[in-house]
Design goal:
The complex is a heterodimer of chains A (305) and B (410). With 305 residues, chain A is an all-alpha fold. Chain A has 14 helices and two strands. In chain A, helix 3 packs parallel to helix 8 and helix 5 crosses helix 8. The longest helix of chain A is centred in the N-terminal third of the chain and has 47 residues. Chain A starts with a helix and ends with a helix. The longest helix of chain B is centred in the middle third of the chain and has 24 residues. A five-stranded mixed β-sheet of chain B has the order 2-1-3-12-6. In chain B, strands 8-9-7-10 form a four-stranded mixed β-sheet. In chain B, strands 4-5 form a two-stranded antiparallel ribbon. With 410 residues, chain B is an alpha/beta fold. Chain B is built from 20 helices and 13 strands. In chain B, helix 3 packs antiparallel against helix 16, helix 11 crosses helix 19 and helix 19 packs antiparallel against helix 20. The chains are: A mainly alpha (305), B alpha/beta (410). Chains A and B meet through loops of A and helix 4, helix 5 and helix 19 of B.
């Protein structure tokens, strides 16, 4: 009798709260994996960055010594500087993608084929992009090298030049990134209200003014998204550096993510703590941008945009 | 059931049938196809002699192996694993991942048979693995380029540098290298330093006992600068893989290449023959220094987590023997370490290497990235590459290396 009554009570409690509880139950697997694979490792990195550890033997707590060393490490500053260059130049993908999207946003025969051709670089793997550009720049037989040699008389081996190498890699990275921004803008352009354009036209708006005051404001969600993926893409650039130069020549094309890998995980890297401290710095830099983006999203939603 | 199978069917069936029994030795390795075939043959020989033991070989590609060894040694250790001699094995020895096999050396007289590799296999007075192959480094040159430039094969480094002017006049790069992967530059540094300051000093430097800002180190770089400053070394080497540079030697656009003997296969694939490809030891710089050479040694180790120690040790002892080493090195085109093993007499490069290494008075170095700890090796090799691109930055490079030395060796 008592048993039955608790049973009914419990069932009714479940019934009453089912609506509110269900979303949380569905969230549990996602949250769990996010905790285990993202949140916990972040804190683990912070913790690990206080150790001197080769990944195999005993850990030795050294406090902030890794960070002190980082502040005095020229390779760290090279990586940081390159990350800034990446960040700035990578943003060029946004206007370039917009330009191509507007150019392709017309109705002629076979436009879909052209669109997919422009989108193609985003589909192929970064590794392939890196290899193609490495051949393109290769001294003596690369197309780019030969072209420069024809024009100026002496070839430039971009990937062997410590001052130019980062720009060479960024150019390779821009190729797929522009395609990505282009596709974001193409979908955005579909949503542009034709009536507003019509109205603007009646008011005699055209060319750049039409773009700036009528079309771009309507593309704001696409611009925001392009901004997010480009900034994050620039900060986590790793594959191209690894494929094209391996950080060389003598470390001049390193970025933070690559330097972290080199110190902690590569063939010559046995410094887990030092690698973790680089990861922490990179994480903090990313946090600046990510929290900015999240703040913007939240305020947009609150504003009922 | 098993014995019936073993008796009635082929050797392959024996291997298959005994896979699950106690005599299984798990062996992780990173062989190229030719040495892999030889190793499989050696394993078959060994299993024929020891039918109760089954060697289970798991082969990885080189780069994947280098990154995964740390994981599998601590997580799921095989009984045997391939690695390298010298300081490259130190992290695994010091963290207790490789097992001491001094008893195998003692019981089989290996200290005598493998004497040339004894120093590089010894840490704390104990032996930590069995070396099975090494190969010489030196200068490979294009004989056609010599004819075209009208040069004579040099005896001393001064002659070598003087020749470079002839090659430059014939529009041939005197020395080629491809330092995209950094290590080929370290080969040049090692020889410059071995010839200028000798083996002892070179080892002291690799072990962090000498400052990089020492005048003797500067003397080494001063010799090197005789090639760098006039531009005798191939331009853009920082963007070239070592194979790209090998192509230049093959095509005759470069005359010399400081390389290991494994490059001979690449030169010959490119069309060079024993008539057009030459080998010479790195020429003398300081005649008062006893000649030392570079010969990186590949090794097999017993892991600390091994479950079948007895059988694994039996295989190591077999691998140290003259027969196994002869067979393995014939396939690899390299040199056996066992002094009773034989080398192919019809290969002039192997014969030259055998002669060179067995008569070395000064000592045998492993290679910069094996003699120096990993971190120092990386920073050092970057410095060598930078020096060959920006020789005017030497002071900054040496100071950077010195700072790294003070941190790394403590």
């Amino acid at each position: 009798m008592r048993l039955a009554s608790t049973e009914t009570r419990r069932r009714s409690w479940w019934r009453e709260n089912q609506q509110t509880l269900t979303p949380y139950i569905f969230l549990i697997p996602g949250v769990l994996f996010f905790m285990v694979y993202v949140i916990v490792p972040i804190f683990e990195s912070f913790w690990l960055s206080g150790f001197k550890w080769d990944g195999l033997g005993e850990r030795e707590w050294i406090g902030a010594a890794n960070y002190v060393e980082l502040m005095d490490d020229p390779a760290f500053y090279t990586s940081l500087k390159n990350n800034v260059i990446w960040l700035v130049l990578y943003l060029l993908a946004i206007p370039a993608g917009l330009f191509i999207a507007i150019f392709l946003n017309q109705k002629v025969v076979g436009i879909r084929a052209y669109k997919s051709l422009f989108f193609f670089p985003f589909v192929i793997s970064q590794v392939v992009v890196g290899l193609i550009f490495a051949w393109f720049y290769a001294p003596n037989f690369g197309l780019f090298y030969i072209l420069i040699e024809k024009i100026t008389g002496s070839g430039v081996a971009l990937l062997a030049d410590p001052d130019l190498v980062t720009y060479g890699i960024i150019a390779a990275g821009l190729w797929p990134q522009i395609a990505y921004c282009m596709i974001l803008y193409l979908t955005g352009l579909n949503a542009v209200d034709p009536e507003q354009i019509e109205a603007a036209r009646l008011d005699n708006a055209k060319g750049f003014k039409m773009l700036w005051y009528v079309i771009l404001p309507q593309l704001r969600p696409a611009t925001f998204l392009a901004m997010v993926v480009t900034v994050i893409g620039a900060l986590r650039s790793f594959d191209l550096v690894s494929i094209m130069t391996d950080g060389g020549p003598f470390g001049s094309s390193r970025v933070l993510s690559f330097y972290m890998f080199e110190q902690a995980l590569s063939e010559y890297g046995y410094r887990m703590g030092y690698g973790a401290s680089i990861a922490v710095v990179l994480f903090l830099i990313m946090m600046v941008f990510i929290s900015g983006f999240i703040g913007k999203m939240v305020s947009d939603e609150r504003g009922g945009n | 059931m098993r014995s019936i199978l073993a008796l009635s069917t082929s050797a392959i069936a024996v291997v298959a049938a005994s896979t699950a029994v106690a005599g299984t030795v798990k062996y992780y390795a990173d062989y190229d196809p030719a040495p892999l075939a030889a190793m499989e043959e050696i394993i078959a020989d060994f299993e024929a002699l020891n039918p109760e033991i089954d060697i289970e070989l798991q082969n990885f590609d080189h780069e994947g192996y280098k990154t995964s060894i740390r994981n599998f040694l601590s997580a799921d250790a095989p009984d045997l694993a391939n690695w390298y001699a010298g300081n490259r094995m130190a992290p695994f020895v010091n963290s207790g991942q490789f097992a001491d096999i001094s008893d195998v050396w003692e019981a089989n007289g290996l200290k005598d048979l493998l004497a040339s590799a004894l120093p590089s296999m010894t840490i704390d007075g104990k032996q930590w693995g069995v070396p099975y192959t090494y190969y010489q480094w030196g200068i490979y040159y294009n004989k056609d380029a010599y004819a075209k430039a009208g040069a004579q094969v040099p005896e001393t480094y001064d002659d070598f540098v003087a020749n470079c002017a002839l090659f430059e006049a014939a529009e041939i790069d005197c020395l080629t290298t491809g330092t995209k992967a950094l290590w080929p530059g370290a080969g040049i540094f090692d020889y410059m330093n071995l010839r200028t300051n000798g083996y002892e000093f070179h080892m002291d430097l690799a072990n962090g006992k000498v400052a990089w800002t020492d005048d003797r180190v500067r003397a080494t770089f001063a010799e090197w600068a005789k090639l760098v400053e006039p531009g005798y070394i191939t331009d853009n080497h920082a963007a070239l893989d070592w194979q790209d540079a090998a192509a230049q030697l093959v095509q005759g656009t470069a005359a010399h290449y400081v390389m290991g003997n494994f490059a001979v296969a690449v030169f010959k694939e490119g069309g060079m023959t024993n008539e057009t490809l030459g080998f010479m030891p790195f020429p003398t710089i300081n005649p008062d220094v006893p000649r030392a050479e570079e010969a990186p040694t590949d090794t097999i180790h017993l892991t600390a987590g091994a479950t079948n120690v007895e059988d694994a040790k039996a295989f190591l002892a077999y691998m140290a023997g003259a027969d196994a080493q002869t067979k393995m090195n014939a396939a690899m085109g390299q040199l056996p370490i066992n002094k009773d093993a034989t080398v192919a007499a019809d290969d002039p490069f192997i014969s030259a290497g055998f002669e060179l290494l067995s008569t070395t008075p000064g000592g045998i170095a492993q290679f910069f990235d094996r003699d120096a700890p990993a971190e120092m090796a990386k920073i050092g090799m970057e410095g060598f590459q930078q020096f060959m691109v920006q020789p005017d930055q030497l002071d900054a490079i040496l100071e950077r290396l010195e700072k790294a030395r003070q941190r790394i060796y403590e």
